[in-house]
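Sequence in, structure out. First:
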Amino acid sequence: MPNTSTTPLAKGAWYTLVILTLVYVSNSIDRTAMSILIEPVKAEFKLSDSQLGLLTGLAFGLTYALTGLPMGWLIDRVNRTRLLATVVAVWSLCTAICGFAQNYPALVMARLAVGASESAAAPTAMSMIADLFPKNRRSTAMGVFWTSTAFGTAISLVLGGVIAANYGWRTAFFVAGAPGLILAILIILTVREPVRERDIGQDDQTPAPSLLQTMRFVCANPTVFHAFVGIGLASLAMSGVPVWAASFLVRTQGFTLPQAGLMAGLGVGLFGALGSFLGGPAGDAVVRRWGVQALPAAPMVACVLACVSGLIFALGSSLMVVALGFIVFEIVSRGFTAPAYAILVTGVEPRMRGVVVSAVQAVTNLVGYGVGPLVVGVVSDRVGGTNSLKVGIAAVMIFSLWSGLHFLAAWLAARRSERFVDGATA
């Protein structure tokens, strides 16, 4: 069995990683554009917080989940660069279409379309990165990739707030959709399809496992199963803060919309990106020090710290305390992602990666980004009053702690798993 520490990088690996990261920056901009536009959209269409939670969450997450598994099936079988270029172009156009909505149902329909087209992005990138980078460098590569969510969210919050304040929320959607169209062309012209990694006993003609075979494999592999469930639970908590952060600052700290967008955007862009970047090397450092089987310890610790810092953000009595909670939350919640996904792509066979990552992305977007913001909104409506949003955000932090327990179980299971042995293939 080859030693992954001596495995050379595939040709063009770093360039492809940069393009994939830029693609997901565009993805994150288009996904989170609605978050900074909550207040002007609410005012124009006279919406409740529950309706806004549906718009920012479930309207996106539902179609993301429904199309995720079919997209994963395609990813494991077709040319991934062409597929990626196609979906980037589609979600960019659909984001721009949000700006033409004349009522709430039309805006919901446009968001449904964005969710459906974005479902292929992360699993395609994860599949390609796993083929481009060996196991001992995979978490770092994924850490670089996942900085995209912080940068994209920050750009969306900062520029979205400024554009909305000066030119209206519709113009903000038009601007958000433009970069993806350029990236789609760049992918077609410059990105090569990576050679797919082979698992033990397989050759290039070995067909990809069926969806049923893949899900059976996940359920029979305790490490992968607990990581799968843990990622889904963590997303419930980790989506609640960034989606509602700007509105939280407007309502509890008296910020204007541009001020709230600037503070939330800088927090996500600086400290979220820092967390994403450090999360990958931290995961690889754990692997070097204690072996691949210890990798689940990294997201486990991140979940506990995210719960504590999220509560500090929600319940802080002063702006300084709120800001500190937000900064720590962004660092640890973004740092969670790279090692968590590295567990998935390491623990499954190479030709299962597209389906497995699509499945977990479907769960995180339906249960996490779909239900998470909705839970915050519903709790806020039920509690009522000026501090209701504080209670709503605090309520979803329990899911972060629950997630940490699953990663503890994944850690214990990995110690007995053949796929988490140093030097194993895949």
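Second:
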Amino acid sequence: MKQTDFVHTQGKDIIDPQGNKILLRGVGLGGWLLPEGYMWRFPNQGDRPRKIERVIESLIGKDAASDFWQSYYENYISKNDIDKIADDGFNSIRIALHWRFLLDENHNINQKHWQMLDDIIQHCESRNVYVILDLHSTPGGQTGANIDDSENNVPELFTSEYNQDLTVFIWRALANRYKDSPIIACYDLFNEPVPEFHGEYTHKIYPMYQRLIKEIRDIDPFHMITLEGAHWSTDWSIFTHKLDDNVLYQFHKYWNNPDAESLSKFLRLRDEWNVPIFMGEGGENNKEWYSGAFALYEELDISWNFWTYKKMDTTNSMVSINKPKDWDLLVDHMEKGTTLSEEDAKAIFSEYLHNIKLENCVLIDDVVNVLFRRPSIEIPAIFYNWDLNAKAKNSNGLNVGYRIDDHRDIVFVNSELQKPTFQHGRGESWKEDEWLCVQMHQGDELNYWFTSRNQEICMFSLVLIVDTTSKISVSLNDELVEFELNKQGRQVVEVASSMVNEGKSSIKVKLVSGEVRLITIKIKSQS
């Protein structure tokens, strides 16, 4: 075999085994092999796997707990989930691995668990879904927090030679098992190493990367490797020199401006080193933010992976698990020490195991639509294209702190706030006083895009505020519509009902005369 038989890097691009340039467009399978408490709606007493395990075992006993976890692993992610991911149009998944799932209590390979992983990977191959193997939790922990199941809230991967040797053992085993598998896109050596508050260990990240790459390359010379920065995978100052020629450089993005300015340090390294970059984890926000952030990655030629695919009682993942009816009794037991009988606990966990199956979950198609910009969607006006037309020709110098380099007048619709906020971790939509708009002047043009999976009829509308009598033209691909706005104030203007073809379509909004504040573009499927 040779490198071109696998997904690999070529300059700034990722190339598939057929020689085509691709972007990885994927979802993260968080919560499956490394359960995170927030995905279960648990308090701090159950914020990580080891705490969740202790709670379950204390309530229903060791044998029943073992049965619970076996059923959990089999049903939280199944072949049905992979089918949904593929059918929705994603071409990759990132599997968050826990080292204790991969090894048994004696630190030998857990053959039963590896077979479960094999089964999912094989089904991914049948559906042409690439797999990123992400060691989300290393022995001792690389982060020192709940997300890596840290025992002492210290990144003890970097304080213990034994933990480092065990991590090498795991990666050698993974490389040996999957070295001939083209469906594996890359190896993600470890997730979000060393946050700033553990900065005394930052200098140890790169030597560990170097050791792991050497060990992997002894076995597998061809698979792509992805490396993450420090401090929640946002600090790339650790990347001082190339460790390998087949590396995808990874950053994560949460709760901040979805703009090119915030990505400048990552784009700069891409240009300077001539390497591809990857937004390997981002999400946990609202659909408005998604519509801006993920379109941004597409336009800037950045592969991306949405976090996370499934969790309980949510509106901002693709799949929502229904909360068992007595779940709050379990939470109260953990948080307040209230009594919960073994019988009641077993009933709650049994209902939970029923609810996690895809067929019993709520599918949130709006999330999928907004990630791909498919109708029916709303695109906030501030998320116009990052193209040559992005910079304004006319401006009053009004900007509240978003896309400043474009010199456009971006202001609040109606607010006393001083700067925008993009922190909506529970998925709550922007409040009325958080909405931004683009103040358009005569001659201004704004471009937008969306995609469709098939030919369909869509209704296009603009939500805007008319400040003076104005005239607007809207181009839908090659179709031009012009209309006058004589009535002042906020209004929804139906532009046209139009047939769109499969693939990418464009919208151009031009203010011929007058002045308006454009708030959002609505695209509603009528097929």
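Remark: The longest strand covers residues 503-525.
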